[in-house]
Design goal:
Elements (H helix, E strand, L loop, with lengths): L7 H17 L5 E3 H17 L8 E6 L7 H5 L2 H11 L3 E4 L2 E7 L5 E2 L1 H5 L6 E10 L6 H5 L7 H8 L4 E5 L2 E5 L2 H11 L6 H17 L4 H11 L1 H10 L2 H11 L3 H8 L6
Parallel strand pairs: 2-6
Antiparallel strand pairs: 1-2, 3-4, 4-5, 4-6, 7-8
Length: 267
């Protein structure tokens, strides 16, 4: 039996937020992170377990930035317009290109930052949106007055035009192909500071390998060949305890989980 990692109401709200963002954001953009894994694994995972794949609390979206563009072009770029869109939808900045919307658990009401301060934290949901770029423009900090969140794997999606169309309700969004989505997860898990993030990445790595529409042999061949260090680092980051907990959330036996994850070994 599968076991949700996060509160289902919270992940449902985050998924609805992704849908609303996807209809409002300027294109092109790529959905990354946990929701990209969800869309990749959903059909296969549901067939096997009779339940949707694990949801996420965060929404990650990525944009192309040409480091050679002028400062004026950067100020009017798709990325810049996307920031305006996100803020226009009621998200407030809480860090370097991380935006948040405060939602009351009991009523589902969207609160302002000031209103949220008067509500107990246990009565709030936080929907986070992380805005990423594929490359950092040399004038990025000066123009946006904040450090960029960059995802190098995103550059390959734009350069190689290899994004995959995925259905999100009645709309279509672009996500990375499985081998690049897996590579992004392999890169992220060793740097995670929070235990729930490590655990979610450990689940996502399994899901991309085992539940992608592309055969796991093709996915593994690509990542082992192109990202051998990341494979090794990710395996080292998945402790025995994390593997056991990930298997429980995924609804699989520990040995089945390890049998898939160990396919990342390159030696």
């Amino acid at each position: 039996m599968t076991e949700e990692l996060y509160d289902t109401q919270e992940t449902r709200i985050a998924l609805e937020a992704l849908g609303a963002l996807s209809t409002a954001l300027p294109e092109p953009f790529v959905v990354l992170g946990g929701w990209a894994v969800y869309l990749t694994a959903l059909e296969s995972y549901r067939r096997e377990h009779g339940a949707p794949y694990l949801g996420s609390r965060d929404v990650d979206v990525g944009f192309h930035v040409d480091p050679a563009m002028s400062v004026d072009a950067l100020r009017t770029s798709t990325f810049s317009k996307a920031i305006e869109t996100v803020r226009g939808l009621g998200y407030v900045p809480i860090g370097s290109f991380r935006y948040c919307k405060f939602i009351h658990k009991g009523t589902g009401e969207v609160l302002t930052e000031e209103q949220a301060k008067s509500v107990s934290m246990i009565d709030l949901f936080y929907v986070y949106v992380d805005m990423m770029v594929d490359r950092i423009h040399p004038q990025h900090d000066r123009v946006f007055r904040a450090k960029a969140l960059d995802e190098p794997v995103l550059g390959r999606v734009f350069d190689e035009r290899c994004g995959v169309s995925a259905r999100l309700g009645d709309i279509s969004v672009v996500i990375p192909p499985p081998h690049l989505l897996l590579a992004s997860k392999l890169r992220s898990i060793p740097a995670r500071q929070k235990e729930d993030k490590v655990l979610k990445d450990a689940c996502d790595i399994y899901a991309v390998i085992w539940h992608s529409p592309v055969s796991y042999d093709r996915i593994l061949s690509a990542v082992r060949g192109e990202y051998p260090r990341e494979c090794a680092a990710a395996l080292a980051a998945i402790s025995d305890e994390i593997a056991e907990r990930a298997a429980k959330h995924l609804g699989v036996e520990l040995e089945a989980y390890l049998g898939v994850i160990r396919k990342l070994q390159t030696g």
